[in-house]
Amino acid sequence: MLGPVILAASRSDRMRRLISAAPVTKQVVDRFIPGETVDDIVPIVEELTAKGLELTMDVVGEDITTPEQASAARDAYLELIERIAPLGLGDKVEMSVKLSMFGQALEGGHDLALANVRPVVEAAAAIGTTVTLDAEDHTTLDSMFAIHEELRKDFPQTGCVIQAYLFRTEADARRLADAGSRVRLVKGAYKEPAEVAYQQKHEIDKAYVRVLRILMEGEGYPMIGSHDPRLISIAQELARRAGRKLDEYEFQMLYGIRGEEHLRLAAEGHRMRVYTAYGTDWYGYFMRRLAEKPANLRFFARSMVSKG
Question: Which residue of the set 118, 184, 271, 273 is catalytic?
């Protein structure tokens, strides 16, 4: 399996330098990350929402080593919210944040991350939208869930992400599937040990369906994070069995992957939200996109050979 190898490379400074220096890399990265600045991304927001799509915005960057960098990450989100506020799009454009960007791994990181993310959640609420806390590797999840619970006291619409490949996730889903909750279910994109996570694709797919059923039968708002046509069909059937209307759940897919499917689902009346990342520190995000799906890796490899 190439996925674990690619995920290991995502942590390698040597591979970062090699891939970043390749002339073709920027052309390929642009498929997944449509800009580096707020000025780049605002027109993308306008273009996609005009097509009937919704967005969740991610300012990429995870290698935070100082409190000052964590504050800068917070400020980048605040700038984004300030810039999209005049568009009047409300919850059609929400934010996705990784708490590692806000200092979670630093000394006193739990409290620091909470202090940094709260102003972002407050600013999002002020323009009629919300924030979803992305899941990272399993060692960070207890802190993430605790911060999520704290934020929901004042901002109950704050969402979080759960990962189907972790053994703990079914229990997390049952706990989270309450009225007013917003939960995004993904397969998982970090290299996790066999002690805590399923390793085989068929096991992960079966776990995804089990967890999705819990969310659909619960009282919260499921967000289906998948590009897999089979899982999308299963999600539609589970929603039908649970008696959910089209506005009582949503699909989420990454910018640059299956764009025609985004438009098809939106045209059928589904809420279809595009996970749209931007920024200069793109390497870790990009490598996980390659690891998630062999087709992404083949696309990159062909580009390296034909244009490098």
Answer: 184
Q: Does residue 76 fall inside a structural domain?
A: yes
173 and 214 Cβ atoms separated by less than 8 Å = yes
Q: Is 163 annotated as a binding residue?
A: yes
Indicate if 14 belongs to the active site: no
Read off the CATH number of the domain in which 217 is found.
Answer: 3.20.20.220
Is 109 within any annotated ligand binding site?
Answer: no
CA dihedral of residues 228, 220, 119, 154 (deg, nearest 10): -170
The domain tally of the chain equals 1
Tally of CB atoms within 10 A around 178:
11
Q: What is the pLDDT along the chain (308 residues), one digit of tens a residue?
A: 545 544 554 455 565 555 555 555 566 667 788 888 999 999 999 999 999 999 999 998 767 899 999 999 999 999 999 999 999 999 999 999 999 999 999 999 999 999 999 999 999 999 999 999 999 999 999 999 999 999 999 999 999 999 999 999 999 999 999 989 999 999 998 889 999 999 999 999 999 999 999 999 999 999 999 999 999 999 999 999 999 999 999 999 999 889 999 999 999 999 999 999 998 776 766 666 666 655 555 555 554 444 43
**Does some domain include residue 114?**
yes
Residue from 58, 134, 172, 205 carrying the catalytic annotation: 134
Nearest to 227 by CA among 199, 195, 265, 253: 253
Q: Is residue 301 part of a domain?
A: no
Q: Which residue has the tokens 């996925």?
A: 3
247 in active site: no
| Residue 182 annotated as lining a ligand binding site | no
Count helices and strands (H / E) in the chain. 13, 8
Residue 205's domain comprises 34-278
Residue with tokens 């990342």: 277
Q: Which of 279, 224, 213, 283 is nearest to 249 (CA)?
A: 224
Flag whether 175 is marked binding: no
The residue type at 169: T
> Is 186 a member of any domain?
yes
